[in-house]
Automatic annotation (TrEMBL):
Residue stretches making up the Schlafen AlbA-2 domain: 23-143
Keywords on record: ATP-binding, Nucleotide-binding
Name under which the protein is recorded: ATP-binding protein
Alphabetized GO MF terms: ATP binding
Record's keyword annotation contains Transferase: no
Keyword ATP-binding: yes
InterPro entries reported in the protein's UniProt record: Schlafen_AlbA_2_dom, Schlafen_AlbA_2_dom_sf
Taxonomy, superkingdom: Bacteria
Amino acid sequence: MKSKSEIMDTICQLEHHIADDFESQDLEFKQWNDRCMEENVMKMIRYAVCMANGGGGSVVFGVADRIQGIDNVLKGVPFDVDIYELQKRIHENTVPHLTPSFDEIFYKNDSIRLLVMHVIPEYPSYMMPNGTATIRRGKECLPYNLFKDDQ
């Protein structure tokens, strides 16, 4: 899992790199969908499960992928998105229950807000209520059952 200062340092490098250049086993960048809050919540749940099964990590929401330049990359997350509501929804939709922590990072005179979801697993495997699970391998979330034998 990355610290807030490590993530901030990485974000500064997006002037000349794309976010994908820095994604790894314990770090992912995702753009926020301003049109559909439920899609964002489901994405958070999927990544919480994936990261937890992969040993933990951080997902930065509000960063565009495959684009260079800070002014173009930092899309942000709306200020009215409630972190406690996100934690509650993730907790309710993971088995066993998982409650990530969140950091906020502000840019451009506090006009852009990024959310960093930190996932620290406590149990050996997590899934969504429908029984699906993924695991982080490198830069990808892969179906969990592909790796059951080596867990």
